[in-house]
Amino acid sequence: MTDFLWGVSTSAFQIEGALGEDGRGPSVWDNFRNVHAGQTAEVACDHYHRWREDVALMTQLGVNAYRFSVSWTRVQPTGKGPVNTEGLDFYDRLVDALVDVDIAPVVTLYHWDTPQPLEDEGGWLNRDIVERFAEYTAIVADRLADRVKLWIPINEPAMVTLLGYATGQHAPGKQLLFDALPTAHHLNLAHGMSVQALRAAGANQVGTANNHTPAWTLNPEDAEAAGAYSAIHNWLYADPMLAGRYPDELAELMPIVDGDLENIKQPLDFYGVNYYNPTQLTSPSDGNPLPFELVDIDDYPRTGFGWPIVPDGLRQMISELRERYPDLPPVYITESGCSFPHVVEDSARIEYLDGHIKAALESDVQGFFVWSLIDNFEWDSGYSQRFGLVHVDYETQRRTPRDSFHWYRRVISGE
Fold first, then answer.
1. Is there a binding annotation on residue 407?
2. Angle at which helices 347-362 and 403-413 cross, to 10°
3. How far apart are CA 361 and CA 328, in angstroms?
4. What is the pLDDT of residues 298-335, one digit of tens each?
5. Dihedral sign from CA coordinates of 243, 248, 249, 253
6. Which domains, ranges and CATH numbers included, belong to the chain?
7. How far are the Cα atoms of 213, 316, 336, 350 from residue 323, in angstroms, in the given order?
8. Which residues participate in catalysis according to the annotation?
């Protein structure tokens, strides 16, 4: 397992803070107000100023890979036009520091923080954003491609469409239901154009990070509902990326232009799976405009978020992917983790990670990235959920490694 990547993951908006510094522009999340207790990411974990401390923590942990995201608005404050050199320099220094301690940089170019000026022009509903994203990709790759090990253009496009544009739970807070589907096509196309821009810049390994969830049924007669949900959550992004087509039930709803599917289906060096839990479906009740209804999964322990803890779901999901795509590239678990409120003693997190890492290893993956290195701003839940191997006191910014941190260090070292 000498080539196995033992890693941790974070995202820019959730940890960096420094929202008004170095010329960074506003993103949709700066302006989103539907957040727990009115909290903001203005400071978050202050990683922008404390990144050396966080790299030192990773060195202590013993990981050989760190997955982080670049803030589009730190590099291009309006999402297009001139480069903010000071912002790009921040990521240049971070990558250098990681390489110096033999931690492979794994870069995500977009983790949900759309520049607000682009959202004002329609955001992911506007096809023009695809070209803007390709330009941004080229800027970042030109600076970092010589040192970054793995590239991920877009993190969890399903969540952008479903939570950001369909239900409004996430920024930008649109509630369009099926009218949100054009965003899925534009996200897929942006992925494909970004892959091409990365390869043109000499990037090494290029892949993706899609959120996947096994679709379970409450009763056998709910199979159609589960299939509809899986088509939207699992296959709407994987199918065009890996097979050059959309699921049959959704293809006619996508705003496809000639050549789009060819641009989306680019050869990938790896496939990233973000896994947290299965989803259980039943047929919709009267008045529900959707072809499915979500229902609780009972008889499993739950995280602080209330998510069922089911390591077998990870095994199932990877098996489904390999069955559906016989030429599936090597798989990395690019995110898996759990929220619990504990300060230091967190045996429940250890149990979660132990089960999921075992499931991943038994599924012949190439790496596992724990979400997350440190507690962070958890989107609409603010600071109410703690995913970190490291506890963060948000008043003092003091970092305290939890028991799970030390447990993961022992796993990595083979103790």
1. no
2. 30
3. 17
4. 999 999 999 999 999 999 999 999 999 999 999 999 99
5. positive
6. 5-413 (3.20.20.80)
7. 15, 10, 22, 31
8. 156, 335
Any known ligand binding at 111? yes
In Å, what is the CA distance from 410 to each residue of 4, 11, 54, 243, 407?
15, 25, 19, 39, 5
Tens-digit pLDDT profile for residues 71-99: 999 999 999 999 999 999 999 999 999 99
**SS3 category, 155:** strand
- CA-to-CA distance for 161 and 155, rounded, in angstroms? 12
112 is in an annotated binding site: no
Give the separation between CA 89 and CA 70, rounded to whole angstroms: 11
Tokens encoding 162: 């479903």
Task: Give the C-alpha separation, 254 to 178, whole Å.
Answer: 11
User: If you write DSSP's letter for every residue of 255-284 in order, what string do you get?
Assistant: ---TTHHHHH----S-EEEE----EEEEPP
User: Which residue bears the tokens 């010589």?
Assistant: 146
Binding residue per annotation — 6?
no
In sequence order, the 6+-apart residues with CB closer than 8 A to the CB of 344 are 391, 400, 402, 403
HEC readout, 110-136: ECCCCEHHHHHCCHHHCCHHHHHHHHH
309 touches 300 (CB < 8 A): yes
Kind plus residue range of the DSSP H or E element containing 107 = strand 104-110
CB 176 within 8 A of CB 240: no
> How far, in Å, CA of 290 to CA of 225, rounded?
9
51 assigned to a ligand binding site:
no
Burial (0-12, 13-18, 19+ Cβ within 10 Å), 55: middle
Tokens of 19: 């929202």
Where are the strands (E) in 175-218, listed by range? 205-206, 209-211, 215-217
Give CB contacts under 8 A, 24+ apart, made by 314-317.
314/273, 314/275, 314/356, 314/359, 314/360, 314/363, 315/359, 315/362, 315/363, 316/214, 316/278, 317/212, 317/213, 317/214, 317/273, 317/275
The radius of gyration computed from the CA coordinates of the chain, to the nearest angstrom, equals: 20
CA–CA distances in Å: residue 311 to residues 172, 272, 281, 361, 407? 32, 17, 19, 12, 18
14 labelled binding-site residue = yes
Answer yes or no: pTM beyond 0.85.
yes
